[in-house]
Predict the structure.
Amino acid sequence: MTQALFNNYKRRPVHLVKGQGTKVWDEAGKEYLDFVSGIAVLSLGHSNPILVEAMKEQSDKLWHVSNLFDNPEQEKLAASLVADTHLAHGFFCNSGTEANEAAIKLARKHTGKHKMITFLHSFHGRTFAAMSATGQEKVHAGFGPIVEKFEYLPFNDVAALQAAADEETAAIMLEVVQGEGGVNPVTAEFAEAIQAICDDKGILLIVDEVQTGIARTGTRYAWEQTALKPDIVSLAKGLGGGFPIGAMLATEALFDSFGPGTHGTTFGGNPMATHIAQTVIDTVFDQAFLADVETKSIYAKQQLAKALPNLQVRGMGLLLGIESPLPVAEVIQAAEEKGLLLVGAGETTVRLLPPLTVSNEEIDAAVAILKEILG
Ligand SMILES: *Cc1c(COP(=O)(O)O)cnc(C)c1O
């Protein structure tokens, strides 16, 4: 077959042309419930009028300004992201992998150490350092020597972590719920152990909230529901509600390690991205909005438990995974035929990532389709 595009994605033959809220339509006019949301990106659903308005408003004023100049919108967005947390500063980039790249560089620069502990089945991105941080061999395959000194430990294994974390360790890096790796939440015991080890040994803690952050788990950040108190946090996916933006947040203590000229990006945090992300944050960081995400999470878990009593459902907030007895690709295909878009996670998990604005009726409809396939 001749094609102009690289073949690096296994694309499904669905050509979506329109979206509204949780619903999308393909070329032929077929309607689907979108429980992929661009992989946890469309936090406020498709074509949300608030975001459409924000985008139009900013596009009439100013699209791009170099980071050589003042940027009050970036300052405001950083302040909103760290407000009422122990974090103090933010840096903006364009994606999750870039946010992690910044996090890894900052941790190395600040500590002068190079060893980093990450976990098997983690996913941190596709650039060299973020790929090297990722504890999955298939992500490294074929690219030659990776960035040095990442050690991959089994997730939720306190003894393995105690044995590996030492004075040479710059940072421990984890996802609160491993998203791509199978919807595996950190246990309370492991989160406590990580924090204790970091405090004891002066190791920095990097929490990758690229998928779990920005209200996806029912709190602003997923670490808020654990004993983890990260020094550095990476964000992307849901932050722009569909407009590309990433961010790295860190504590006051790390401020001086990213001085002028140490790190940067041309596009990062441009006025379009920051204005739209600010609109997302102003909406989803509202207490009532967060409480509603949690209520819908509980509802979805209850309905799934009723419909599929024999299957394990894991996750937090509206990042849920069903352990599938059928091959995941088959479940995804069958759901697609019935008008429900899903994405896999790991080898055996079907992942549900509806927009945070999903309704109970839409959850019911999705659960009914899942019951037909898996029940
Ligand atoms: C998606 C993801 C990334 C990579 O983000 P990109 O924007 O695709 O670079 C990193 N970490 C986690 C946890 C992710 O889910």
Q: What stands out?
A: The chain has two domains: 16-48+287-374, 52-284. The longest helix spans residues 287-307. The chain has twelve helices and 17 strands. The mean pLDDT is 98.
